[in-house]
Amino acid sequence: MPxxxxxxxxxxxLTRLFRGFWVSQAIYVAAQLGLADLVADGPRSVADLASAAxxxxxxxxxxxxxxxxxxxxxxxxxxxxxxxxxxxxxxREKGELRLQVLFVGRQASWQAAGDLLHAVKTGETPxxxxxGASFFESLRQHPDEAQLFDQLMVVNTTPVAxxxxxxxxxxxxxxxxxxxxxxxxxxxGILAVHPQLRGIVFxxxxxxxxxxxxxxxxxxxxxxxxxxxxxFEAVPEGGDAYLVKFILHDWDDERSVAILRTCRRAIPARxxxxxxEFVIGHGNEPSFARTQDMNMLINLGGQERTEAEYRAxxxxxxxxxxxxxxxxxxxxxxxxxxxxx
Length: 341
Hints:
By secondary structure, this protein is of the alpha/beta class. The protein contains 16 helices and nine strands.
């Protein structure tokens, strides 16, 4: 007699959701052990996989069986496990999603997530409360995690840079300032598509040093430079467009307005502000932006915002929001210009 489909009732669907943290940890284990790469060339037995990964075979089988039930790997009739389309993004060569799993699935992340109730009651940031340090302070204390985070930011930004370069009309722009630009992936991606542009990547001095290396490696040293500083204090002048990508969502409204005000002081009268962020839409449909908002709440004390909330930030900082331009998914370019008066 065939087993009934699960979940089928509302209660079963809720059960599946709140048990999801077990699945997420199983995915983390698969990424950490490199299981996708081990079956990339064909199905393998659990004993082979355990030997290759340095794992306990009976326990590994149970984890793989759970993942197979989610479509992540598949168990053949002979008990061997094989790659599936959902497991393929965990291959090392794929990069982005595997790095995301390794970073978000690490102990520091799920410990902070377990403190969400405290945050809801107090408004405190769970990561700070659990670890006794802010997210970025913790990264400075753990260089291996900082390196993983930097790698993740680069691979996350590369497709966004291509999409922004294609979605926005840069034909009248000569110089872009990438505020909080990290290793320069956004600026370099845009400069590669628009040869008339020059760029400045602006970030903390230690980060800017890495950006200089990336600029040189891309062969763009004649068109792009990296400058170190603090975007709460000042940003470079002389840009036609100031790009602020995935920065404001790290901060509360007060600090976000402070960042925008430093841009306002530097931007010329005919300049443009281009904020690239996830924008939360209306309605009750699931969205990546909503889950990302929980990431910001738990780890950084920041938030994803609606278009109306960005409009309020812009106005408080002396900008007028002119339009939002779809990039892909929930990501938008939120364009602003200096407000009159």
